[in-house]
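Progress narrative, work stream C.
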Amino acid sequence: MKLFLKIFFLIPVFSFSQENYFNETPINISLDSINKQIIYQTNKSLFFIDSEKLNILNRKKILGSGTLNLHTIVKKNKILFLDKNGGDIFILNSKDSLKKDDNSHIKKFFLGNFHFIKNDTLFKHGGYGYWTQSNFITYYDELTKEWQIYSISKTSEIPRSADTHIGISWGNYYSFFGGNTLIENGSRIKNRRNKEVWSFNFNNKEWSLLGKYKESNLNLNSEIFSNEGDLYILDETKQLFKVDILNNSITKYKRTPILYDFYKVNPLYYKGYVYYVNNKGVVSKTLLSEITRDIEDTDIFYSENHTLQIILIILFVSVTSSICLYFLTKYRGRNKLRFIKNKIHYKSKFIELDDLSISIIKIISKRETKLSEILELVSQSHLSKIQNERNRNLIISKINLKLKILTKNKSDFLLVSKSTFDKRYKIVSINNSAYGNFL
């Protein structure tokens, strides 16, 4: 009789053995840190597993979940079922049936989004739906029970839109990289990866482009888990990496046999252990130190974005060049003859000339001028030809004398010579070799 009673009481224990659910399809695992439990979601059930001994504490069959694409999270010790593709949030009622707990009506707009909890607020970033792609962060408003767009600073950069990307919430920041992105004409290309690494600062509400990661360093078809600011990525080949956004580094670890037992469900980190679903559909754990013991390689994760620095450098060079050019032009201008109204300036000095002299100089400065043309300018009808010629020569001599005094140049400013085209004519030209060009 005693033996019968012992067997009778052991039956429930055996019925809660993990081996009884390995035929169910694993979906994800989440952490209930308050109760020190791992919550394991399959396509049919929720299993509550002790984090130390890994024995099943409770099991709930989820009714009405067969047609839904859900992902469980634990928020304030409350289990929420998130629609991966939309904004619906479900909870379990007393009969273990799913009950809609939000007022949103967002359907198939968050395909491939990344969700995270920060300061007890549920956030979603990115996603795809209705032939468009999101580049903003949304949060779940507990009062209205609806999704709202999280506002950013007016001075913020605008981030790259993305879906099926990798994200991590650390400190006061959220960072993301990878995933699908849009090309310039708005078409979504499935095999095109987003190479940019973006980070959002929750303090000043600004996005910043950190740079571009090296595709050769990382295969993003993988499972991820995080430990504070460290993001761990296990790729298809069972290669484990650690990405440190803050210090811009990526660490590649040597493969260990236990990694080949990880099933394609995101693991989670808790108190030194990595919890994962193994290939038998059973929740297991291993020390993080065991799978990160041997380092194979380290490298920078992304090439830093120097766009702002380049713009500032170009702006500085442009302004400096403009200032230098201004002063150089001004300095050179001081050593050249310049017309200002009825005066000719040279360095800090000037001379005044009558209107007729100014007119003659302006004409000759543009082209070589026949001496006869100058005569026509100075001629007065009541004077004889000889008197007019004398006045012409006198004006030319007067101009030359004043320019010599102004510049302290011994050469004549206006030169009279025979025309190179016709020796019968004389021309007047400015002595550019001695006085330079006019400004």
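Work stream C, second folded protein:
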Amino acid sequence: MITGLAHTAVCVPDMEAAIRWYGDVLGLRVLSPPYRMEGGAIERDMGELVPSPVVITAAILGTDEGDRVIELVEYPNLDLKSAGEVSITHAGITHVGLVCDDLDATRATLEEQGVEFLTTGTAEIAGLRTTWFRDPWGTVFILMEKSKLDRPYWHQY
């Protein structure tokens, strides 16, 4: 039985640059520093998904020590291309949701840091204020401000 959500993995072409961006721009903390995995265990885990030899570097970032974190993943042996086209209509993971306490101030701070927003303003839907942006590698995020702080984001109406 599934008991909770653990992480959203974001594949990046440069781990150190991504850690700086996610920390400096989004304010996430490194909860588990980058670690490199290679050898038999990771081959058994991902060998059918990633060309051999499987080598992966991963780091965990978040706002607290809980299970809802972002896992940055780099495959140093693979030539990854940054996503140029933004799409939230392709099958698979489409975006990562982030909750903030003040949407306007957070957006202004991110814009000052050069973050590319995908929507020109904000919207109000289902009791949330929202706006969309992406990281330098094309991962799409929705930034959400709750109207009822005592409720989860999905139960604001």
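The radius of gyration is 17 Å. No further action is required on this item.
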